[in-house]
From TrEMBL:
Cross-referenced InterPro entries: AAA+_ATPase, ABC_transporter-like_ATP-bd, ABC_transporter-like_CS, ABC_transpr_MalK-like, ABC_transpr_MalK/UgpC-like, Mo/tungstate-bd_C_term_dom, NA-bd_OB-fold, OB_MalK-like
SUPFAM superfamilies: MOP-like, P-loop containing nucleoside triphosphate hydrolases
UniProt source species: Pseudoduganella lutea
Name assigned to this protein: ABC transporter ATP-binding protein
Assigned keywords, A-Z: ATP-binding, Cell membrane, Membrane, Nucleotide-binding, Transport
GO MF annotation list: ABC-type transporter activity; ATP binding; ATP hydrolysis activity
């Protein structure tokens, strides 16, 4: 395993700057997820670590060694792509061992590594089959196995599960987490799927516009988003938002035309300013649906999700989502003041 340290990285594609002045530190043995919408720069960053993109400026260090301009083969990395990229005429064993054979690895060592990877990924019964005889999930296991046999310092995954159906994605996601525990390797994983990110990551970097918006544990990011983009990107349904201002005349309260909430217990990073324009955010599970709730609003839609339901309330022209564990009817709710987030309306950053 090896650490990865990136400093002031700039990546350019023609006349366009995709990533600029980006810093990232990955500890040895961590499972890091790069999460963000399409076009945010997450795959570009991963490919830059792999050496597939040239850096216009900055540095990339792997295991303490400067790899900024090193060839991909010299970086001690293994890369798993979204597409399986298997050789159709070779069986599973040959696909997994191809890179080792090209590098002149002794046959006994190749056999040992292939056997170990096949056992980890439950591929032993499939070693003589060709890719055309495998399911999508099995093919992706082979692609992961091909990376494992390299015994690399850092494993890079570029949306490896996006071509699979929901059930297979869930199964392979669980297997990847177990695999990380068994290998103890450094893994960097790219996805736009927040469920994958939240379940796999030790820490995750939420990206937008080629920049890291927040880098922390999944729980910390979910509970205390750094800005409005992170707040609304994570969560399904997303965070409910209310525009208003702070009132410090008696304690500290959030107020707008239809809502008043005591936020005296909020952990402000800076002293609150009276009259400051703010946005209050609250997760749907922190909307307390109850008959005596101070916010009266009709339910416009009920989404049954199995273990819970999502109630959509129409509150003065705004849709407010609430997650409830039972069949309560809705129609009135309160906001839990100890669960809210506050953002500056001008800068969109967390207060």
């Amino acid at each position: 395993m090896a650490s990865v340290s990136i400093r002031d990285l700039r990546i350019e594609m023609g006349a366009n700057t995709i990533i600029d002045a980006l810093d990232l530190d990955v500890r040895a043995g961590e499972f890091i997820v790069l999460l963000g919408p399409s076009g945010c720069g997450k795959s570009t960053l991963l490919h830059s670590i792999a050496g597939l993109n040239d850096a216009a400026a900055g540095s990339i260090r792997i295991g303490g060694h400067d790899m900024t301009y090193a060839d991909p083969k010299d970086r001690g990395i293994a890369l798993v792509f979204q597409s399986y990229a298997l050789y159709p005429t070779m069986n599973v064993e040959a696909n997994m061992s191809f890179g080792l054979r090209i590098n002149g690895t002794p046959k006994a060592e190749i056999a040992r590594r292939v056997a170990r990877a096949a056992e980890m990924l439950q591929l032993e019964p499939l070693l003589r089959r060709k890719p055309g005889q495998l399911s999508g999930g099995q093919r992706q296991r082979v692609a992961i196995g091909r990376a494992i046999v390299r015994e690399a310092d850092v494993f890079l995954f570029d949306e490896p599960l996006s071509n699979l159906d929901a059930k297979l994605r869930t199964e392979l996601r669980r297997e990847l987490k177990h695999l990380h525990g068994r290998l103890g390797a450094t893994m960097i994983y790219v996805t736009h799927d927040q469920v994958e990110a939240m379940t796999l990551a030790d820490r995750m970097a939420v990206m937008q516009g080629g920049a890291i918006q927040q880098f922390d544990t999944p729980d910390a990011i979910y509970r205390a988003p750094e800005n409005l983009f992170v707040a609304t990107f994570l969560g399904s349904p997303g965070m409910n938002l209310f525009d208003g201002q702070l009132d410090t005349t008696s304690g500290i309260a959030f107020r707008n035309e239809h809502l008043a909430l005591d936020v005296s217990g909020y952990p402000f990073r800076q002293p609150p300013v009276h009259g400051q324009r703010v946005v209050l955010g609250v997760r749907p599970e922190d909307v307390d649906v109850r008959p005596d709730g101070p916010c009266r609003a009709p339910v416009t839609l009920v989404e049954a999700m199995g273990a819970h339901r999502v109630l959509w309330h129409r509150f003065h022209g705004r849709e407010v989502a609430a997650i409830v564990p039972d069949d309560r009817p809705g129609g009135a709710f309160a906001l839990r003041p100890d669960k809210v987030s506050l953002f500056d309306a001008a800068t969109t950053t967390r207060l």
